[in-house]
Predict the structure of Adenine DNA glycosylase.
Amino acid sequence: MSFDKELINWYLDNKRDLPWRRTKDPYQIWLSEIILQQTRVEQGKPYYFKFLKAYPNVLALANASEEEVLKLWQGLGYYSRARNLHFTAKYIAFDLGGSFPASYKELVKLKGVGDYTAAAIASICYEEPQAAVDGNVYRVLARIFGIDTPTNSSQGIKEFRQLAQKVINKDEPANFNQALIEFGSEQCKPRRPLCGSCPFVTTCVAFNQDRIGELPVKLKKQKIKKRHFNYLVYISEEGKTIMNQRRGKGIWEGLYEFPLVETASEAQLENLVADVPAEYSVINKEPVLYNDLPVVHKLSHQHIYTKFWIVKCDELPKEALSLAEVNKLPVPVLIENFIDTFDF
């Protein structure tokens, strides 16, 4: 039996019952694909339901404010996904009349929709035979066909895309793409793959050459940057505090946080006070360290070591916010966890 048919048979016998597999609505498929980028299924599923409840169609999402979208997304990370989701919803609703593009060629032009997502939507919703290639697919193809080209190289991306396109079942592209991804997630796992029950065990190059641990090959990642954040948590006698919105193209763009002092190394009180922004120094209160050990927040390309400093004041500027107002703002999970544990 051919690779594609064997794979689809495995899928029909073993696939998980996931909510986005019960629909061919391009809005729901697009929403699920954006949520599941860089996110495990079990973590993403509650967000999928939350978004569908709040925004049942693309027009409802387009009519939301960016702050509302970011607040609902809070905790998923990689917030550019949420901003792109909202931008594209507005484009589809207001520029395309609410109709999703119906081909891979047009889908891939949408902001936040790359090759993989466009191929997934095109195959699932429109049965277009476009191969959807993600990390699971790289792993399966690398092992079964014995490919050692690095998956994160330009040559590797091209080579794996061509192979996936070559072996796709053109009569059942939706089932094939989902089967290949599911097989990588549930059978051909990164560690401890289930080779004993694998339908390709007799032909898998990696298994038969004892190279399971070697494939797929990836080029070394860039060095992780270490950053030191110091949040100044101002609290007035009324229980109000100050929050600022992050600007620019760095991490957490558009989210809110306490006034931030970033230092080159772990801050002590002496050098922290010297770096306090002028607009806050007039309050003239000495910060008190809340956490002796920095909270370490790990992102893919940087680790953030965070200290929270409490500054109690008689009063704050008129833009100060109550806890109820703070709780309505979209914030990084690092800030959310602090707010949940600190007694305002």
Remarks:
- The domain at 3-208 is CATH 1.10.340.30 (Endonuclease III; domain 1).
